[in-house]
Amino acid sequence: MTFVDRIFGRLDHTRFAIMALGIGALIGALAVMDPRLPILLLALAVGGYVALSRPEILVPLLFLGIMMEASGKTGLAIAGLPLTLSKIAVLGMVSVWAIRSAVERRPFLKPLPFTGGMVVVAMSMVIGVGIVGSAGPGQIQTVLSFVMVCVMAHLIERMIPINRLSWLIRVMGITTIGIMLTQFSKSPVESALDDRYSGAFLDANNWAMILLLIAPLILAVYAEEKNRLWAIPMALFVVLLGANILQSLSRSGLITSLLVLPVILTISWRRSWIFLVALGLLPFVIGAFVSMDAMYDRYITLVDQTYGEADGSMLQRAELARTAWLLFRENMVFGVGQGHFIDSAMARTNGNAHLIAHNTYLNIAAELGLVGLAAHAFLFFVVVRQGVQAVFRAKTRRLQRLVLGYAAGMLSFALMSATLNNIAFPMGYFVLGLGAVICRATYMSKEELEAVDLGDPTTDKPGSLLAQAA
Questions:
Q1: For the chain: N or C, fewer Cβ within 10 A?
Q2: What does the DSSP assignment read for 67-97?
Q3: Does pTM surpass 0.90?
């Protein structure tokens, strides 16, 4: 029985007629007030019906909201937490799924392998707020943001049926291509000191990280498509991905790209020739948007730290790292308190260190101490264990490479967290929820996977992934 059947199946003819008359009277009253209101009501009704009957449609909209975070400011806030389009999308998903769960009389959420780790991390954050004795807006925002992204990860796992998994990742790929095409800089970046390209996000490093989070999953799906026409968007995606990473002038993005490249090549092996094509096209694309001088000035600091940089970002990050380590040593058990790194760092350095640590792990150590580090290590452990077990359970090459794509994206997230503060980064938890759906699919048989578009393009002999790639 469908969701709509559950709603209207409980209405007899008399009640249905009364409801229809009531709706008609409401529409008539709205038309008298303003002729546009019935159209708005109709749009809301259609949107509500689609969302309740096909809730997975909300997930690509959430993905778009996260990708367009820089353009998604609304000026609204709840409990001091700024509302962007992505947060509004999460709240909408919560409302829709709450209604659907109530009608179908099933639990709103269910525990996942990483649920316990998230609860432990949230408890460590609450302890970090408590030891300070007062909770300011910054502390409340951080805790609420973390809770929200955790709920989002659980909702994604509930709302995406396995037979829609490949469809969703295809849509993510096409959406990302569209965003990268429309967000290119209008004029070339001539100097490493100019405003760096940040795509549709607020920060160039975050933009590089968000692309590296989702790219392995998208390439894993495109590389295994049976229709060869999917090679076209795959080639376009690879070229634009390389251009965006380099154009962002993100040093951590470049290093992370090189580190995860072997995994990406492995999961894309079936269409590895596309990378050769992309490598040939990339210089022409890069030259149109970023000068070689700007890239040289930025990336040379990775090997020559004496090279002059007017913004002094490498020296600044080193100072913040030293300060974070000193704060951790002085407050080893509980840290200085959730959200109090900047205040403590400024007091410790006479105002020289006035930013966040730019390192998630050092920031956790300084603010939450050993308690926070242990909590986050536990969450990391359960996520890694889930992924490793899923790789060995996967019955088809397509699904196995999808699991590896998920793992490569999370590895990118973990690596870049060493240069950014990503405790509640929305796309990280979006991919985590998507990974839970992928891991759930690994319990299915080969025949069941064929039926949900996760079978292999051709019949493969059993063997390891590397052996299949070779």
A1: N
A2: HTGGG-EEEEEETTEEEEHHHHHHHHHHHHH
A3: no
Give the amino acid at 134: S
Could you tell me where the DSSP H helices lie in 75-229? 85-104, 115-130, 137-159, 165-182, 204-223
| Positive/negative CA dihedral, 109, 383, 409, 194 | positive
**Bridge partners (DSSP) listed for residue 76:** 83
Question: Residue length, the chain?
Answer: 470
The model's pLDDT over 267-301, given as tens digits with 9 standing for 90+, comes to: 988 888 888 888 888 777 776 666 677 777 777 77
- State whether the Cα torsion 171-173-176-181 is positive or negative: negative
Outline where 268-302 has alpha helix (H). Answer: 273-287, 292-299
The Cα–Cα gap between 357 and 366 comes to 9
E strand or H helix at 313: helix 313-330
327: nearest Cα among 300, 297, 359: 359
Strand partners, 84: 73
Specify the amino acid at residue 372: G
Positions in the chain short of pLDDT 50: 8, 74, 310, 459-470
**Which tokens go with 273?**
């020739």
Cα-Cα end-to-end distance for the chain = 47
